TrEMBL record:
The keyword Methyltransferase does not apply. Residues 92-105 have a biased composition (Low complexity). The chain crosses the membrane at residues 12-29. Keywords: Membrane, Repeat, TPR repeat, Transmembrane, Transmembrane helix. TPR repeats lie at residues 206-239, 240-273. InterPro entries: TPR-like_helical_dom_sf (IPR011990), TPR_rpt (IPR019734), Ycf3/AcsC/BcsC/TPR_MFPF (IPR051685). Residues 35-44, 82-91 have a biased composition (Basic and acidic residues). Residues 35-105 are annotated as: Disordered. This is Tetratricopeptide repeat protein. The keyword Repeat applies.
Amino acid sequence: MATTSRSTSHQLIVLAAALALVGGLFVLPKGIMKPKESRSELSKDAAATANRDGGGSKTNGSKTEASSGPVPATATDNGGAHSDDDGHDHSATGTAAAPHTAATAAQRQELNRLLKEYNAAATPAAKATVATTLARRYNGVERFDSAGYYLEQVALAKPTAANWQQAADAYYQAFSFAATDERVKLLGGKTRELYAKVLEKEPGNLDAKTNLGMAYMASDNPVQGISYLREVLEVDPRNEKALYNMGILAVQSNQYDKAVQRFKDLVKVNPKNVNGQFYLGVTLARTGAKAEAKQAFLTAKSLSNDPALAASVEEEIAKLK
């Protein structure tokens, strides 16, 4: 499993690179994302990083492989065909998935055993019990879409807001891992569907509304996503996730003054938010406030022991001279 240190550096480097503009286009490192994909990728990266200093996935969506659902336990890659609308093969012959980070033989054996137990369960209640355990095991090997599928089965058996949110949260993590446009569309759609079910039962659930907003940013209706985030901030102006995501979205539209204000508001709420401090530095630099940018970069560096972050900060500071 990727460490927090590694994933933090990936998040910062990818998004910092995405902020360099030439001729109105995002200039991005080769092999990470294409200019035409920059908005979608930044939305996924925001989804992946939004919760790290105030919750969320730990890995940069533009750098990870897609979690592609249950495939034979002997598989060593993430390939495989899937028939269901959520990207999985959940037939009676389904077996344990090969995760992003390879599962051990013991983990694969347990997943296969649980899948057989799930398929053999005689009642919805029995299936839901096994599904809960399956989801926990899939989550442990970073197969978040598979975890989401089984948590959705739990929610279908007992449709409480909490159960729907557990399923939605798992798909949201999988969405942040999506490595192809097809996976972004597939997992983003499922994420939106399940968070909508949460909000049907709990209209005031700000966490669900924030994540739903970010899932909409990678859809054909990004305006709806912005509306959800604004609704969150109207209720809770100090909401870290919403402030962070609105800052990222302002960057996407080249509104650096607005982005600066969002990140300033964020670090005022939580001065120890590493990503907030780093992106405050990046956006201040874009507006020409070099002294303030340097201070924000140094603050970000002081909050983390990650050598990759330190190197990234030094690189950004060098650009200010």
